[in-house]
Design brief:
By secondary structure, this protein is an alpha+beta fold. It contains 7 helices and 18 strands. The strands form 4 sheets. Strands 3, 4, 5, 6, 7, 8, 9, 10, 11 and 12 form a 10-stranded antiparallel sheet that branches. Strands 15-13-14-18 form a 4-stranded mixed sheet. Strands 1-2 form a two-stranded antiparallel sheet.
Length: 398
């Protein structure tokens, strides 16, 4: 056999392999480029939503957008605006804006969007519900799930008190406690004594304070209990539990929504199996340090595999001015009702600020027109009075 014949046979065998390899490599590169492109779209949508959901001033007191309890920090979050902005960004970048069927179909590939707020998490996921005479299947925002934890104070046979996780039905139970955590150590505490029962927190005492506040944290063990070592144990445990409770609440809500998406997706002919994406504890800890948004996008075909991604967007707490109220005393330089933007103001320090209700507002307009209740000292008796007509303090608010 001539060398030219061998060459032709070699080319005939190798060339198809080269072509197949070239096609596969090109296909893989294109799929990777497409995956990167989709990831950019998703990241952009999350970024847009994180920026738009922030509302520094919440004028509507009937809507609980959540806020920071940290002194002089406030952020209001509108979860519905976050979800709407996220999906509108996706619709625009996928070029399906205005195509209702395509928009609803794309929603099925987003098993969960979570708004991680200062005091709780809200998840948007697919729901099927009746709207008028027709059935609708689309993303809907669920009520906020607070970062809650319950425990019981019990009295042991030896006469010592102890803290027990959860609600105990033991006859030794003294009081039942429910804590709503936040992103810092500011908490809302509810206590139900044994007379009310462990399922009756609606009638329980309700108080918000910092865990580290020694003037208030005795509530954590019960006001009638004097046990410094128990109090220290409870404070330390709650402090160490905070991040885990928040992470577990967020993960539980996201996992449920993601797994629940499978039944809705199957009804639309999607065979992909949706599940909570792999993540580390460190990732989750990082995601709860500030108010933010997390979105899962799964099941979109990219080459010979499927997109399975999670995207985080963080909105950092921003400073906002609070205006505090005072009424004049004999030591006040200005004999008028004032609002101050600095608690270190000398005029604030010498004026009467005893139990103002409300203590502050976040706009000058509200401060000027606010009617404020104040307990003022008259001949040793504390009386509740109302004051109106507040003016800007010339010292701290010129």
């Amino acid at each position: 056999m001539k060398i030219t014949d061998l060459s032709l046979i070699f080319i005939g065998v190798i060339l198809p392999l080269i072509i197949v390899v070239y096609i596969n490599v090109s296909f893989t590169i294109k799929a990777q480029e497409q995956e990167i492109y989709y990831q950019q779209i998703i990241d952009s949508a999350v970024s847009d939503a994180s920026n738009e959901m922030k509302q520094v001033e919440n004028e509507d007191a009937s809507i609980d957008y959540g806020y920071s309890g940290t002194e002089n920090k406030k952020i209001s979050v509108n979860a519905q605006i976050a979800v709407d902005t996220f999906f509108n960004s996706l619709y625009n970048n996928f070029d399906i804006k205005g195509n209702d069927a395509a928009e609803k179909y794309l929603q099925l590939f987003v098993p969960a969007v979570a708004i991680i707020d200062y005091d709780g998490v809200q998840v948007s996921s697919i729901e099927r519900y009746q709207s008028g005479n027709s059935e609708v299947m689309q993303h809907a925002l669920k009520p906020k799930r607070f970062y809650s934890y319950t425990y019981t104070i019990v009295k042991n046979p030896d006469g010592n008190y102890a803290m027990v996780d959860g609600i105990s039905t033991s006859n030794n139970a003294i009081s039942f406690h429910e804590i709503d955590f936040t992103m810092d150590d500011y908490i809302t505490h509810r206590m139900s004594n044994k007379g009310l029962g462990y399922n009756n927190f609606n009638e329980a005492t309700n108080k918000s304070f910092y865990i580290s506040d020694s003037n208030n944290n005795k509530e954590l063990i019960g006001v009638d209990i004097t046990a410094p070592l128990l109090l220290e144990e409870v404070v330390n445990k709650l402090t160490s539990l905070r991040r885990d409770i928040i992470v577990n609440t967020v993960v539980k809500e996201l996992s449920y929504a993601t797994n629940n998406n499978n039944s809705y997706a199957r009804s639309a002919g999607i065979t992909y199996s949706f599940s909570f994406p792999p993540t580390t504890q460190e990732d989750m800890y990082a995601s709860i340090e500030n108010v933010g948004l997390v979105a899962f996008v799964q099941g979109i075909s990219v080459g010979n595999k499927y997109l399975n991604t999670k995207a985080f967007g963080i909105t950092r707490l921003t400073l906002a001015t609070r205006y505090y109220f005072t009424v004049p005393t004999a030591d006040s330089k200005f004999k008028m009702n004032l609002y101050h933007k600095d608690k270190n103001c000398p005029e604030y320090q010498v004026s009467n600020k005893e139990k103002m209700t409300p203590e502050y507002t976040i706009t000058k307009q509200q401060a000027a027109s606010m009617v404020v209740k104040c307990q003022v000292d008259q001949s040793g008796t504390l009386l509740m009075k109302q004051f109106m007509g507040f003016y800007a303090c010339k010292v701290c608010n010129p």
